[in-house]
Design brief:
The complex is a heterodimer. By secondary structure, chain A is mainly α. Chain A has seven helices and no strands. The longest helix of chain A is centred in the middle third of the chain and has 16 residues. Chain B is α/β, with parallel strands linked by helices. Chain B has a single domain, classed as FAD/NAD(P)-binding domain (3-Layer(bba) Sandwich). Classes of the chains: A mainly alpha, B alpha/beta. The structure holds flavin-adenine dinucleotide (FAD) and iron/sulfur cluster. The site of flavin-adenine dinucleotide has 41 residues of chain B, from α1, β6, α7 and α11.
Amino acid sequence: MLTQTEMAILNNILDQLIPANKKRDLPSAGKLEIAAFIVQRASKNPVLKKDIASIVLYAQSKADKVSPNFVRQLQDNKPSEFESLLIETYKGYYSRPDIREKLGLSAHAVHPQGYDVKKESEELLDALTEPVRQRGPIFLDPTGGKKDGA
Amino acid sequence: MEHEPVDVLIIGAGASGAAIAWSLLETRMRILCLEQGGHLTDAEYPSRKEDYELSRYAEFSCDPNVRGLKQDYPINSENSCITPVNWNGVGGSTINFLAHWPRMRPSDFRTKTLDGVGEDWPINYYNLEPFYEMNDLNIGVSGLPGNTAYPEYKISNPPIPIGILGQTLAKGFNNMGWHWWPSDVAILSRDQEGRQKCVNAGTCDLGCAAGAKGGTNFTYWPLLERAGVELRTNSRVREIQIDEATGLANGVLYHGEDGQVHRQRAEIVIMACNGVGTPRLLLHSSSNLFPEGLANRSGLVGKNLMFHPLTGVAGVFKEEMKGHEGPMACSILSQEFYESDPSRGFSRGYGLHSGRSTTPMTFALGGYGVDNPIPWGNEHLEIMDNIYPYLAGLTIVTEDLPEEHNCVTLDADLKDSDGIPAPKINYTLGENTKAMIKHGEERAREVLLAAGAEKVLAKNDDKVWWRAGWHQMGTCRMGNNPSNSVVNSWGRSHDVKNLFIVDGSIFVTAGAVNPTSTIQALALYVGDQIKNNIQTLFD
Ligand SMILES: Cc1cc2nc3c(=O)[nH]c(=O)nc-3n(C[C@H](O)[C@H](O)[C@H](O)COP(=O)(O)OP(=O)(O)OC[C@H]3O[C@@H](n4cnc5c(N)ncnc54)[C@H](O)[C@@H]3O)c2cc1C
Ligand code: SF4
């Protein structure tokens, strides 16, 4: 659906949306070629397809100079198309197993393994709830423990 | 096509439909359940797949308007600040529910007497108590006995972990001297009868492939089908029919899997389509006897719709909170502000629920129940690095008061795939709720700071979560007075003596807790009453 140049423009925009994160060793969204994910989804979603086409058209003259300022302009001028792009970028980026793993999540399907969460010991729960138990019951009991109609 | 008549016809295979079928099993009556959706197979659970999170925004969204599956009906929520969410299929909304399992409290059944708001229920906590217990055993509930916000009750499984997040918040509540307790959950903390214990995957809204969550697809239905209850799936009821001579319901017309309209006769009809689906079907079942909709002589079918409007406040802590690990909604619950205190400036109250947070994708897209993507660029990195991992939040879940103008009607234009009019929601937030939310946000801020939060993030407006129409109640309420209620104290229509309703629509008030334990206890209570009154059922 997009030419190579258009894909490059889109990836340049994506680099601004999710820049590289050196601290966590995470690449930018453009470097991960999330544009390919977006284009693939757009092929099944005519509204998204239109939004992406409109953004690429708007950005065409800026192929090599996509800056944060330019992206802000894009957001102001094409707010709904921009939001579609942003949503799909986040979906594409954070659904990647390699990215998930770097963020401490399971890379693959979460069932059946899930996550190992340590159970609190009885002693810990006792200690934590002690102040609550000390204060005693806090509920009103308007029928004094009796059923209606009994 | 005409089918052989049955004794009992249940419409809807969700939380309440399954519970009442179980209650009626021992009568040996011939029971049939018609359900518009199908069974989920193991492979269909998103959490079995690598890209499971994407389905949250597509075919496994909690919002039927986003899913748009054949079995879904669209909902027009243009005139509402909250949109109803659900699942249509075997298990109903217990497929994607989060299994937080608090009971209602004794005062919830007497708000008119105690606080001069809402209405009193014709039954009370103690009528339901044995049925809460019975249902908890059937579902498999985990929690810590001794909660001081309730009369004593038994819990069969030890609590699930509250996690670092719950422990941190609990200390904040203790520092404030406020009530909190580990949440009761309809989730297994140990393996039981072929169901795996919770593995903390955090995908409860996408169905629980482990079977740890007490959806009726794992609890009641397998047992019911083995016992001979017929579950006819992909069968959408379009109309309940009435014998004009007797005034009794005599069956339904439904759209079958084959695309044809079928007729099913029955001696007793039980509606379990939830707080939106049930009034929709009654309003669509008008006749000469009931021109304003079936069982609607009171004019209250569809009225008094209640949700639990909610908003969230989050604290940013020093330590990582691991919010994506563990059941999404269930860690701890504070009921310090649950009942009325005149000094607060509103009636009744709210709960402070500690949801866990979500995965990075869902967080980046605005969080669960909200749809505002977080900022992009360097601000994005800052949030994902320095806020997201350290978040622990509280949701303020308010008691909604019944107001007639909040209602379900039939949409004049919008229809489902079988041409049945869609429900239309008219709903605004009451002033009482707005005051509660404001109060709750302030208390949440205090307790988060007391728990050690370095920063508190709140919206500070009176907007509530849009996709928080999880709990739908009040639209066919119960009562002793036929001019002021739709069904009697045991779920039987005042107008049609063999028509029963067992879902959340029969709630009189909403309480400020998740409703499903009460919905199912009520369904078992109604079943019990049917059995007790079997000789004179239609008098
Ligand atoms: C995302 C989410 C999270 C939730 N979290 C919690 C929670 O933590 N705790 C809690 O207590 N509750 C929670 N709930 C609410 C809970 O799921 C509902 O309260 C409960 O399922 C309602 O039971 P019900 O029997 O009234 O309706 P449902 O369980 O919704 O079942 C209704 C069934 O009727 C069927 N139906 C409707 N119309 C027709 C028709 N015309 N013909 C045939 N079939 C029909 C539907 O397909 C559906 O299967 C949550 C709900 C959602 C959606
Ligand atoms: S967190 Fe537990 S209850 Fe929720 S889906 Fe995973 S296993 Fe099921």
